[in-house]
Amino acid sequence: MVRQRARLYDPLDARPATHTPLRAAAGAPAAGRLPAAAAGTFTIGGDLAVNRMGFGAMRITGPGIWGEPKDPAEARRVLRRAVELGVNFIDTADSYGPDVSERLIAESLAPYPHGLVIATKGGLVRPGAPQWLQLLRPRPPQWVRDGRPEHLRQACEESLKRLKLARIDLYQFHDIDPRVPFEDSLGELARLRQEGKVARARRIVPIVSVQNRYNFTDRRSEDVLGVCTRESLAFIPWAPLASGSTTKLQPGGDNDRERGRALDQVAAAHGASVMQVAIAWLLAKSPAILPIPGTGSVAHLEENIAAARLQLTAADLAALG
Question: Cβ(293)–Cβ(234) under 8 Å?
Fold first, then answer.
């Protein structure tokens, strides 16, 4: 059994490009030339085919993944542009906002085009701090696990309403709650599946996907990725690029500085940004990886999606490690 850490942020937004990035073409792409499709496809659970270049809808919310976005119109444009560019897998969660990400997806895209998969999650909550404490220390509430069966049922049913769906194609358990027996949480997800509210639920046998932190500098889930590759399970990496610059990547050791220099060199050779090379590296790392880089900017979205067409050479991959 794989334990997933809660997805807290996507630092891809904050990282500046070192080079002029590749860009997706302006306007609606011609049929058969959708940029996201260049990454190839992956079939989740044996019957749900999606383009491997997905979109993470966490950053379309406010600062700290809390509240409304600063520019709601831009957030809606990002979602619509993602679909125009061939993205047909969007990852979200009820805790993003909370509720804001799911609601914006429905407002922007429903009724959904055929083949668009909205994957969401339950099991994390953002309880608000007392008003007096917010006045003293204004900041987004912490993330708290809640795996109680009654909460998971309520979370799933409310996600269905917000997303305007009759059934969620992929429902993901955000994180295991140590206060609740795992069997109790799993049993409730199984019941939701039996009732037809969920088509596929991770952590219910058969498992169809795993979502762990994994990127160019943080490879601690390498063993999990290996299992997913062997078993044809979707591996959905969150935080697909570590924060920092190409010469100071987290956690900042000598090995990371060497990798950073290699990343910068490969980006320069391809006329791409380091972000795009990091996404292309994920796509080349394993056919089971389904990257979901997120952003609240149309321009940044187009840069990310263009990475699907970036073909790294064997020499590039050897240099990147």
Answer: no
Confidence of residue 258 (pLDDT cuts 50, 70, 90): confident
Q: What percent of the chain has pLDDT over 90?
A: 69
- Upstream peptide bond of 98 is cis (omega within 30 degrees of 0): yes
Residues 186-230 pLDDT 10s:
899 989 999 999 887 655 556 789 999 999 989 999 999 999 999
User: Amino acid identity of 137?
Assistant: R
Domain boundaries, the chain: 11-320
| 21 Cβ contact list (under 8 Å, min separation 6) | 272, 273, 275, 276, 303, 306
Instruction: Classify 142 as helix, strand or coil.
Output: coil
Backbone φ, ψ for residue 43 (5° rounding): -105, 110
Q: What is the pLDDT of residue 140?
A: 78
CATH of domain 11-320: 3.20.20.100
CA distance 129 to 252: 34
What is d(CA 274, CA 20) in angstroms, rounded to the nearest whole number?
A: 10
Please write the tens of the pLDDT for every residue from 23-59. 655 565 654 579 999 999 999 998 999 999 999 999 9
Contact 294, 58 (CB under 8 A): yes
Q: What is the dihedral of CA 294, 298, 300, 301, to 10 degrees?
A: 50
**pLDDT, average across residues 142-169:** 96
Distance CA 284, CA 291 (A): 11
Listed in sequence order, the DSSP H helices in the chain are 72-84, 100-109, 131-136, 149-163, 182-194, 222-231, 254-270, 274-285, 298-306, 314-320
Q: Which residues are catalytically annotated?
A: 96
Reported as a pLDDT band with limits 50, 70 and 90, residue 174 is very high
* SS3 of 59-122: CCCCHHHECCCCCHHHHHHHHHHHHHCCCCEEECCCCCECCHHHHHHHHHHCCCCCCCEEEEEE
**What is the distance between the alpha carbons of residues 219 and 250, in angstroms, rounded to a whole number?**
12
